[in-house]
Each structure stands twice: as structure tokens, then as C-alpha cells.
Amino acid sequence: ELLVFRNQFPRNMAVDANIDALAGAFAYPLAYGYALVGRVVEVGTAVERSWHGRRVFAFHPHASSFITTTDALLPIPHGISDADAVCLPNMETAVNLVQDGAPLLGESVAVFGQGVVGLLTTALLSRFPLGHLVTVEGLPIRRATSYQAGAHNSLSLDAVPPTRFDLIFECSGSPSALNNALGWLRHSGRVVVGSWYGDKMVTLNLGEAFHRERLRIISSQVS
Question: How remote is the C-alpha of 20 from its chain's centroid?
């Protein structure tokens, strides 16, 4: 969303091919957002009355109210708060990142960036029997939160890595972080790119260890 706000999105690319509310290409004017929780306040004559008053989630641009169809709504189960439910798209992203990375028993894993997606990725990884789970983040408050999410250790951006990693998730949104992540991998290591850089270019040093160490860069996307 910051990329859209800062006008850093790629031109003439579909906003989302699978969400009707986000049809069209990236170009201003653009109503954006994809995480909306609310309560159904009115239903049409062709809609079952049971929908009235129901708490729902919608992949829809941010708005105080909107009109849609029932097939675009996901009822929120009892016991799940609005605050948790609104994180559904970000958790869906985190699940895809972890599945694409496919962490193995005892591996050393790092997560670059502890924004919402990075924190959720850390929380999922904490459930795996990993040898080491480290987060890398510039903001102290986010590093503290990553411990609550299950990280074994959390480092600042200028820290020296305590070990080489088998698997790194790059979720910082910073193009330079991907090159740094490659430098933290051990032989046959892999980095999953969870960041969306938009029109920001990424410069990588692939002339040294990249080939001899058999490193892998894995793209990941959820939509």
C-alpha cells in the first residue's frame, strides 16, 4: 500500500486478476486496499435475511461502506476478532511464503523485515522444529514484537550474522535487503522474496558466491 501511496507501482500491470473489486491496471485514480472487515447493515430482496447483521471479511478497497454480492464476502467465525480477521490477506501471504520456502527439520532460518507480513511469517515459522529462527529489523519495537512471535533472536540491520542460514525470507520491502540476504546464506541456501518492490530496481552481486555456493532465489506470490 505504501508503494501505491508513493507512486512506485509498475505501470499498466493488473492490480489483481482474481478480485473483482480490484479490476483494472495500476494507474491513478485508484481505490486500493484488500483487507476489509465489517457488518452487513442491509440486504437486497434476493438475498437471504440471515446475512443481515453478519460480520464479514471482504477483499475490497478501504471504505466506510460499500455494496457487493454475497459471494464476495467471507463470514467471520465466532471467536475470531475483527482485528485478527482483517489480517487474513497478510496471513495468506505468510502461509504461501512458508510453503514456498519449505523449511526442513533443524534448518537455520532468518526473516528480513518485521512488518505485518514478516511478523506473521515469523509466527508460522516458530511452529516448525527449526535449529535457529532469527529476524532482522531496523525498528526496536518490531524486534521486540518478533520475540513475542517466536523468534529466537532479533538483529538490527547493521548486525553481523551469528551464523549462515539455510533459508531466508526477504519481507522488508527494501531492494538492498535481497543482496544482503544472499550474503547470509550457506551452501545451497535459498532466499524467498516476499517483498514487492514495485518499480524500485534491485541490484544483486551474482559474480562471487552465487554460483559456486549454488544459491537459489525463489519468488512467491499470493492472489
Answer: 21
